[in-house]
Design a protein that fits this description.
The complex is a heterotrimer of chains A (261), B (239) and C (223). Chain A is of the alpha+beta class. Chain A contains 5 helices and 12 strands. Chain C has 4 helices and 16 strands. Chain C is flat. Classes of the chains: A alpha+beta (261), B alpha+beta (239), C alpha+beta (223). β12 of chain A pairs antiparallel with β11 of chain B, so a sheet runs across the interface.
C-alpha cells in the first residue's frame, strides 16, 4: 500500500521546520553496514545495509567473445532485480521501468568512470575476453535503493577474484588470487526533494513523498569528476538549485567514499 | 577537436546544431502529431487523447494519466534493432514522460489517458532530444492543455570542447592515452522549459567537471530558447 | 463574414496582461500576465480572453448533438461510444418511447448508431438523451469523421452551410458536435457529393468566401 497522504503531509510539515521523521539532519545517512563475500560461489559479492534498506550484489565471470564494436574489451552486464521479497510493491517477471533505470544507473557509473579497465580483460582480440555479470538484488526496500545498490556493486567488484582457467575453460569454484583491474571507484549518491527541502538517504515514506531526485556518480581523483547525472521525478528544477545540490552531493559522497577499504 | 579553435568534424561551430526540421500535422489520424529532426536524427510523434483508459484500475480519479512510448524503427540504426521495446527504449520512454510531465495539465480530465507515441525513423545521436521536441509539438497540436512548450537538446564535451547537438561521430569520439583508445565524450540530454526557466530532463553519461557541466548547461539553455522559437513558428504557420 | 484576423497562439504565450482582460477558457492568470494554455485561436471580447481550440478530441457540452455507437447494454441503459474522453450513457428514462426492461436490446442493440443529445455531464460518463425531435436511431446512409473543431464551419451560421449542402444534394445530414457526420441521400452519388463538400470544409476552414466556393463546387459536380 502506498503511504497515506496524511503521512506525506506530516513529512512535508516536519521538513519545513528542518526536521525528519527519524530525527536525522537533512543530509545525514543512516548507518551504512558493509558485509563482504556473502556467497562463496560468487566471484565477488557484498551486502550493503543502509538503515533497514538492504541490497546484495554479486559477480560471476565467464569467458566470452567480445562484442563486435569493442573487440579488445571485456564485457560488463549489469542487472538489477527489484525482487518481491523486498517490498509488496515489487512483482516477479521481466524487469519493470524502475529496475531498468536502477541497473542502468549502476552500469553507467561503473562504465563511464572507467572503474573496470575492460581492456585488460581481453584475452584474445575479437575472440576471447572476460565477461563480468553483475547482479544486484534488493532484499529490503526502506528507501534509497539506488545508492545502496551502486555501493554494493562497487564493493562486490572490488572483492571479485578472477577464476582459474584450464585449457581455455573456466574452472568454476576455483578462484585465483587475481583481482579485477580497477581504477578509482565511483560513488553514486542521490538527493530527494520533498516540499522545498532536499534530503539524502530517504526512508521509504520520505522517498514516496518526494517529487524530484538528482542522482550523480562521482569519482574523487585530483578534482571530483561527474560520470553520470540523472534528474528524475515529476518536478523540474532551476539551474542554480541544481548546482547547489550537486555541490552538496559531491561533499557528502566523499563520506561514503571513505567507507571503501 | 582537442583544440578549441578548431571546427567540428562536420564543419559546425561549437554552438551550432545540425539542420533542424520541424513540422506539425504529419499524422492526420492522430489528435496531434509532429516531426522533428536534428540532421539525420529524425523523430515522428503522435498524440491520442485525452481518451478513455482501460482497464479501469489504471485510471486516476484525480487527473488524466500521461503515457509515453519511445521506440526506434528496426532499420533506423546500422545494425538492425529488434522490433519492440528494449531496456533502452523503456528507459527513454520514462525520461520523455519526465521531461513533458511538468507542463501537461492533467487535472481537467480525470480517469482518462493521454498517449504519446514517438518513433525514431533514423538515428544519429540525440534521438531522445529530437523525440521530446516532436512530442512537445504534437501535444500542443493536439490541443492538450499545457503551461508551455518543452524544448530539448544534447550538449556535451567532446575532447575538451563544450558543444551542442552531438552527432554519432562525436558521441563515439576517442583519444589515445597510454597507447590505448579511450572514450573522450560526455553526452548530456537536456530538456528545458523556456518560460519557467527550469530543467525537466537531465541525463549525463561521461566524465565532466562541475565547472564544465555549468558551461554545457548554459549553452544548452541558450540553444533551447532558439529551438522554442522554431517550434512556435511552425505551430503558428497554419495552412 | 467575419473579417478580423484572429491570431494563433501556443501554450505558454502571454496573451494579455494587467487588469485589462479577464482570463477565459484555455487561459490562466499567472502574476500579472494571462497565459495561453493551449494551441488555438486567440479571441478577445467583452474583456475576456479565450483560446478557441483548433484541434483536439471532442469535449462534450450539455445540449450538444452527438452521434455514437452502442457498445454495451447494462440493466438500466446503453453505453454509447461518442469519441470523447468519456463514454456516453443513455438511461432508459431518457428514451422517447416504451422500453421493455427485460430486454433492452429490443430497443437499441449493440452496434446501433444513435443521434442523441448531451443531457448531463458526470465525472465518469456523459449522460445522453433521445428526448428531442432531432434524436433518432440512424439506419442506412453512411458515417464520416472530421475533426470536431471543424464542426462549427460545417454547420455554418445558423446552419447556413449544412443547409446549402442538404439542399443541393437532397441528402439528410446530421452533424454531431463530436465530429461524426451521418449522411443519407436518394442515391450513393449524392451522398458522395455531400461527403466531398464536407471534406473540403473540414480541410480548409479558414478560406475566405467558403460558402460561395461550396455552392460553386456542388453546382459544378451535380449530375
Amino acid at each position: 500500500m502506498e503511504i497515506l497522504n496524511i503521512t506525506k503531509d506530516k513529512i512535508r510539515e516536519l521538513l519545513e521546520k528542518g526536521r525528519r521523521i527519524d530525527a536525522r539532519t537533512l543530509y545525514e545517512f543512516r548507518d551504512i553496514v558493509i558485509e563482504e563475500n556473502v556467497s562463496s560461489k560468487a566471484e565477488g559479492s557484498a551486502r550493503v545495509r543502509i538503515g533497514d534498506t538492504e541490497v546484495i550484489a554479486g559477480t560471476k565471470l565467464e569467458l566470452v567473445e567480445p562484442f563486435a564494436d569493442t573487440p579488445d574489451e571485456g564485457i560488463l552486464v549489469v542487472n538489477a532485480e527489484l525482487h518481491p521479497l523486498a517490498s509488496e510493491k515489487f512483482e516477479l517477471g521481466p524487469p519493470d521501468v524502475e529496475a531498468i533505470k536502477l541497473a542502468r544507473i549502476v552500469d553507467r557509473a561503473i562504465r563511464e568512470s572507467n572503474f573496470i579497465d575492460l581492456k585488460k580483460l581481453c584475452i584474445e582480440r575479437g575472440k576471447l575476453a572476460w565477461g563480468i555479470f553483475l547482479d544486484i538484488y534488493a532484499i529490503n526496500d526502506d528507501g534509497n535503493l539506488i545508492d545502496a545498490s551502486a555501493f554494493a556493486a562497487v564493493i562486490a567488484l572490488k572483492n571479485t577474484k578472477i577464476p582459474e582457467v584450464e585449457n581455455g575453460k573456466v574452472k568454476f569454484g576455483v578462484l585465483s588470487q587475481k583481482k579485477l583491474p580497477l581504477n578509482e571507484p565511483p560513488i553514486t549518491i542521490t538527493a530527494y526533494k520533498i516540499a522545498d527541502s532536499f534530503i539524502l538517504d530517504p526512508c521509504s515514506e520520505e522517498q514516496e513523498a518526494s517529487t524530484l531526485k538528482i542522482t550523480v556518480s562521482i569519482t574523487y581523483g585530483k578534482e571530483p569528476a561527474i560520470h553520470g547525472l540523472i534528474k528524475d521525478g515529476e518536478e523540474p528544477i532551476e539551474t542554480e538549485k541544481l548546482f547547489e545540490i550537486l555541490e552538496i552531493l559531491i561533499r557528502e559522497g566523499k563520506k561514503i567514499h571513505s567507507k571503501i577499504k | 577537436m582537442s583544440d578549441k579553435k578548431e571546427k567540428r568534424p562536420d564543419g559546425r561551430e561549437f554552438d551550432e546544431t545540425r539542420k533542424i526540421e520541424a513540422k506539425v500535422g504529419v499524422i492526420k489520424r492522430a489528435d496531434g502529431s509532429a516531426y522533428f529532426a536534428f540532421g539525420n536524427s529524425k523523430a515522428i510523434a503522435a498524440v491520442y487523447g485525452p481518451r478513455q483508459l482501460y482497464p479501469q484500475h489504471l485510471q486516476n480519479p484525480k487527473k488524466a494519466i500521461l503515457r509515453c512510448f519511445y521506440d526506434m524503427f528496426s532499420f533506423s540504426v546500422a545494425e538492425r534493432k529488434k522490433p519492440g521495446p528494449s531496456r533502452r527504449s523503456i528507459e527513454i520512454s520514462d525520461e520523455i514522460k519526465r521531461a513533458l510531465y511538468p507542463v501537461v495539465l492533467l487535472e481537467n480530465f480525470p480517469n482518462t489517458v493521454i498517449d504519446v507515441y514517438v518513433e525514431i525513423i533514423e538515428a544519429d545521436a540525440s534521438t531522445r532530444c529530437a523525440a521530446i521536441n516532436a512530442a512537445s509539438m504534437a501535444l500542443a497540436s493536439a490541443g492538450v492543455l499545457m503551461s508551455e512548450l518543452v524544448t530539448a537538446v544534447s550538449v556535451g564535451k567532446v575532447g575538451n570542447a563544450i558543444v551542442v547537438d552531438l552527432s554519432q561521430e562525436e558521441e563515439q569520439y576517442k583519444i589515445k592515452k597510454d597507447g590505448k583508445e579511450i572514450k573522450a565524450t560526455t553526452d548530456i540530454a537536456l530538456a528545458f522549459l523556456p518560460r519557467s526557466k527550469k530543467i525537466s530532463l537531465l541525463h549525463l553519461d561521461g566524465s565532466i567537471k562541475l565547472s564544465e557541466l555549468r558551461e554545457a548547461i548554459e549553452l544548452g539553455k541558450k540553444i533551447c530558447t532558439k529551438i522554442e522559437a522554431i517550434q512556435r513558428q511552425v505551430l503558428k504557420k497554419l495552412e | 463574414m467575419e473579417k478580423t484576423r484572429r491570431e494563433i497562439v501556443i501554450p505558454g504565450e502571454i496573451v494579455g496582461s494587467g487588469s485589462e482582460f479577464l482570463p477565459g477558457e484555455g487561459t490562466r492568470k499567472e502574476g500579472k500576465d494571462i497565459i495561453a494554455l493551449r494551441f488555438g485561436l486567440l479571441e478577445k471580447n467583452d474583456k475576456i480572453v479565450r483560446v478557441i481550440p483548433l484541434s483536439g478530441t471532442y469535449i462534450p457540452r450539455t445540449g450538444n448533438t452527438v452521434i455514437g455507437q452502442v457498445i454495451d447494454i447494462t440493466f438500466n441503459g446503453w453505453v454509447v461510444d461518442i469519441l470523447s474522453p468519456y463514454l456516453g450513457f443513455l438511461p432508459i428514462n431518457e428514451c422517447a418511447g416504451y422500453v421493455n426492461k427485460n430486454d433492452l436490446s429490443e430497443y437499441y442493440d449493440i452496434h446501433d448508431l444513435l443521434a442523441s443529445k448531451v443531457h448531463t455531464i458526470r465525472t465518469r460518463s456523459v449522460e445522453l438523451t433521445m428526448k428531442d425531435r432531432t434524436c433518432k436511431k440512424l439506419v442506412g446512409g453512411f458515417l464520416m469523421r472530421v475533426n470536431p473543431t471543424r464542426v462549427p464551419r460545417i454547420i455554418g451560421r445558423e446552419g447556413s452551410m449544412v443547409n446549402i449542402i442538404k439542399k443541393e444534394t437532397n441528402c439528410n445530414i446530421i452533424v454531431g458536435q463530436n465530429g461524426l457526420i451521418w449522411i443519407k441521400g436518394p442515391s450513393i452519388e449524392e451522398e458522395i457529393l455531400a461527403r466531398d463538400a464536407i471534406k473540403i470544409i473540414a480541410e480548409k476552414p479558414f478560406v475566405e468566401g467558403l460558402t460561395d466556393y461550396i455552392k460553386e463546387f456542388l453546382e459544378k459536380n451535380k449530375k
